[in-house]
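Input set for joint prediction.
Command: fold jointly, output C-alpha cells.
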Amino acid sequence: MKQILVLGAGQSTTYLIDYLLKEAPKEDWFVTVGDRDLNAAQKAVGEYASGSAIPFDINDSTLRATQFQKADIVVNLLSPLFQHLIALECINYGKPMVSASYAQPRVKELDLDANRKGIIILNEMGLDPGIDHMSAMALIHSLYKQGGVITTFLSYGAGLPAPEVNSNPLRYCVTWNPRNVVRAGEAGAQYMEDGKIKVLPYHNLFNRTWTVDAEGVGTLEAYPNRDSLIYREIFGLDDVSTMIRGTLRYPGWSETWQQLVKLGLTNETMPIPNLQKMTYREFTQLFLPLHISGSKLTNRVANLLNLSPTGKIMENLKWLGLFSDTVINGEATSASDVLTELLKKKLNLPPDARDMVVLIHEIEVRFPEENDRRERLKTTLIEYGDPAGFTAIAKTVGLPAAIATKLILKGRLPMTGCHIPIKPAIYTPVLEELKKSGLKFKEDVTPL
Amino acid sequence: MKQILVLGAGQSTTYLIDYLLKEAPKEDWFVTVGDRDLNAAQKAVGEYASGSAIPFDINDSTLRATQFQKADIVVNLLSPLFQHLIALECINYGKPMVSASYAQPRVKELDLDANRKGIIILNEMGLDPGIDHMSAMALIHSLYKQGGVITTFLSYGAGLPAPEVNSNPLRYCVTWNPRNVVRAGEAGAQYMEDGKIKVLPYHNLFNRTWTVDAEGVGTLEAYPNRDSLIYREIFGLDDVSTMIRGTLRYPGWSETWQQLVKLGLTNETMPIPNLQKMTYREFTQLFLPLHISGSKLTNRVANLLNLSPTGKIMENLKWLGLFSDTVINGEATSASDVLTELLKKKLNLPPDARDMVVLIHEIEVRFPEENDRRERLKTTLIEYGDPAGFTAIAKTVGLPAAIATKLILKGRLPMTGCHIPIKPAIYTPVLEELKKSGLKFKEDVTPL
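C-alpha cells >
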C-alpha cells in the first residue's frame, strides 16, 4: 500500500482530496490529510475508509519527521510561505513532492539535491500556473516540429462566474482566496509588445486593458498578469515580439478596481488603528485629503478620482458599500483586510450559480519553409462548475496535481529534480489524463 | 579592559567607530570592528592601537559564538535584516546591544528574554529615529510636568546639503544609502490632522506636501514620513488631534520625485532583462504605452504625466539623464537599481561642500489650570558637516549610539529589556552628553 500525505485542507483543496480518496481503494493507496485545523482535515476526508485526518503543524519537526518518513509522496497545498521548508524536508526524507503553487527561485535551486536523492519536486501543477503551461508547451512544441516560428504569444486565464450569473454589477464572484483578488498586481507587470518591453507600475495596471473574445462567453477584458517576460525563456520563445500573459474579467471590472487602487484601499502594510469600530463611510474618508468644505463624501471621492459623480464607476463603489453607515466589525487591521471582507460579503457566488474557468492561448506563427505562410491559432478551454458538486476552479486547480500524484506513484513520471510542467515527459501523460477527465481545448486556426 | 564588538563598517558608521576608538585608551576599551569586507573594517580602524579589524560573516555561527562571548557589548550597524538574529544571539550570550535602526516588532517581543538575561537591547539610537525621539520625549515630559495638554505634534527630520550648496537643480545630495532615497515612502504613509486619520498610498505621497520654515535655512517642504500614528501611543500623546512626522526637502524635490513614482521608475521587485545594455532613453521608454505616432520621447513623457513639456519638472527629469543616449552599464537588474545609480552619479555631495541635518519639533499645548493659556513651541536642531572631517549625518547618526555604548559600559544605563530611547532613564543622560558634544536645540515659544 502506498501512503499519500496531503498537507493542507483549505477551501481550494476539496476536489483534489476527494479525487485521491476515490481512487485510493482500487490503486491501493492510503491518504493522510493534515491541517492545523483538524476539523477542516476531517471534513475533507469525510466517510472514506481509505483516508485519515490528522492535526498538522508544519513547524513541528517531530511531526514532520514521522509523517514524511512513512509517506510515499507529499502533496503540498499549504501557503507558498512553507514551500521551501517542505521541499527541503522532502529531499531530506527522499520523498517526491507535488504542489500547485508558483515555484520559488530558492526551491528551483534545490534541483541538484533533488536529483541526488532521486526524487521529483514538481510545482505549478494547478490551473494557472499548471494547465496553462502544459497546454501552451504542447502547442509550442508541436508548432516547432512543423517548422513554425512563433511571433506572438498571448495567454489568458481566469476564474469567473458563468455568463448567465448576474448577481452583482461587477460581474465577478470570489471563488478563490479573496486576499489574492485584493492584492492582485501589487508588484506591477511587464510584457513585450511589438518587440518593445513595457513595464507598468501597480497604480496604472488596471488602466491598461484590452478586449478578448471567449467563444460562447462573449467579450472579456484582460489586464497584464505579473512578469510575462520570464516565460520567453522558460517556454523557449526566442522569436516572439509580442508576449503577454493576461488575467480576464468581464468588462468594467478593471475601471472600477483601478479607482480602489488609486484611492489606496488595497494597502496591507499599514495597520490602521481602531478600524473595526469605524463605519465604511469613515474608512473611505481616511483616503481623502482633509475635508474643509461641506460637500458630500461621494462628490469628494468623485472629484479626487476625476470621475463623474453619477457615472457607472461611482455607482459600483457605492454598491460595494464604501459609503455605507454600517460598522466594519470583524478583525480587519489594514485597508486590504476591509476590502477582502467586503468582497467576501458582496461578491460571493450564489448557491445555485455556476462558476467558470477560462483559459485561452493565442499564438501567431509563420512557416519559413512553406513560403512564409502565416496563421493564428487560438485554443480555448472553458469549464463550468457544478452547483451541486465542485466549482470549476477547485476542479481545474486540483485535477493536475492529483493526476501528477497518481502518475508519480505508478512510476509514470520517472524524472528527478525540481520541475514545472513544461517538458513533454510531464505534460504529455498529464494532458492525456486531463482529456479523459473531460477537459478539452477547442482549437481555431485562421490564416493571416 | 572592556571589549566592544562593532558589527558593520559601512559608509554611515565612520563617525561612531572613530568616536569609540578615540575614547578607548582613556576608558580602557578595546574595539573590534567586524565586516564582511575586511578592507572596510581595516579602513575604519585605521592606525588606532585600541582597535582591530576582523572579517565577519553574520551567518557564521562559530564566529558569532567566539566574538559575542568575548564582547562586553555589541554595537549592531548591519542591515536591519539581521537585527533579530543579532538580538537573539546577544540574549543567548548575555551581552547588551545598541543599534540605530528602527526596532522590529519581533525584536520587541524579546523583551522578557532580555529581562531574564539582565541585558538591554537598545534600538533607534541614531538621528531619526534617535535624537528626534529623545528630544521630543524630553519636551513632552517637561510640558506634562507643567500641566500642559498637547494638542498638536509635528516633527520633521532630514539630511540635506547646506543652503549655500547649489550643485544640482533638485538641491538634494545623497549623503546616505541611496537605495533608501529611491524606496522612500514605498509603504505609503498615515497621520492625523485635525482629529482625522489620513492614509496615503505611495503613488500620491509626494503630492501631499506643505512648507516648513527652518531658521537660518529658509523655507523647506515636507512630505509625510511612514506611519505617524504609532507614535501617538509610543509618545503617550493621547490628546493630540494633529500628529505628523515629516521628511524635509528643499522645495521642488517632491513634485519631481512624484513623477518618477508615477512613471514606475522606483520599482524593485520586477527584474528587467538586459537592463545594463539599454540606454537611459530606452529605459525610460519601457514605462510608456506602446509608441505609435512619431512624437518625441520627452513630449510623450510630458503628455503621459500631464506636465508642461518645457516646465521645471521636465527640466529636472532631463537633467537627471532619463533621456540620454548613454548606456546604463553597471549591475542594475531593476528600475530602482537604475535610479539608485543615477542618484549616486548626479546627486553626490561636492568634495568641499557641507551637508546639513535638520530636526524640528512643533508642538501646540494648552494649560487648563492657567486659564487655558495656549502656546506653540518650536525646537530646531541644525548641524552642519565638516568637509574636511565627518558629515553632519554620520555624526548625528553615530553619536547617540556611541554615547549609549559608553553609558552602558560605565553602568549608567542600568535598565534591562528591549527599549527605544523614550524613557527619561535613557534620554536624560544621552541628551546631556549630546549637548556636551555641541548638539543643541534652539527653542522658540509663541503664545497662541
